[in-house]
Design brief:
Blueprint (H helix, E strand, L loop, with lengths): L1 H9 L3 H4 L28 E10 L2 E13 L2 E10 L1 H6 L3 E9 L5 E10 L2 E10 L4 E8 L4 E8 L9 H5 L10 E8 L2 E17 L2 E11 L9 E8 L6 E8 L2 E11 L2
Antiparallel strand pairs: 1-2, 1-14, 2-3, 3-4, 4-5, 5-6, 6-7, 7-8, 9-10, 10-11, 11-12, 12-13, 13-14
Length: about 260
Amino acid sequence: MKQTLTLFSAVLLVLLTACSPLAGQQNSQPIPTLQPPLVGYGFPAHQTLTFTVDWRVFTAGTAVFHIDQQGSQQKITATADTVGGVTMLFPVVDRFQSGFDATTGCSTGFSKQLQEGPRKVTGDLSFNYAAGKQTQVEKNLVKGTSKQLTASIPACVTDSLSAIFYAASQRMVVGQNIKFPLADSMRTVTVTMKVEAKEEIKTPAGIFQTIRVQPTAEEGIVKNRGNIWIWYSDDARHIPVQIRARLFWGTITFHLQAIENK
């Protein structure tokens, strides 16, 4: 149960966090260039997406994404919380923040505050594109320890949270792929979003015509152990309305509960 609930919070970022390479691995293929958002694509000025998160046959928690426009920046906040009896067994209260330039797609940073059972950890990932460096500072609030790591990055990358919404700004054509560089865990990995099919999806927020996308990586901790999909609305907005992670220990599904545009 503990492993499941820790992964529950990670599923907020599962499409990309789970694609990160194993420690010590290096990418053997050239890293692609992050393509800017399509001309004319409009990120929401203010939007809140609320999801119920189901594991197997019961609802394990809720996840909420807040997207706000601040000048030329898109700011994103995501929360993951267990509910009901799951909270009594192993409470999860996680918070994530990121941002990216709406013109270039380049991430401006990523941070997290994790509270999972007795574990309390914070982390901040910053990017210095001029120097070609990323810096991560992580603190264990229970042990009172901290560590700082630095690694190189390309001229423009996305992060684990921003990537969900950056991908929405790209053209989605069935049979074609979207590739971009993701900075995560002090490495840069190429993520390939395979645009697989169009489907009608029923959620508590309504029925949507969607485009099903499968994020993959040539190397990663869940390679050959599971699959991940995102269903984006098949319109100009490309709103993520469903996310599913099918891993070796079970399936977690995010169902869109509500959309608020203010």
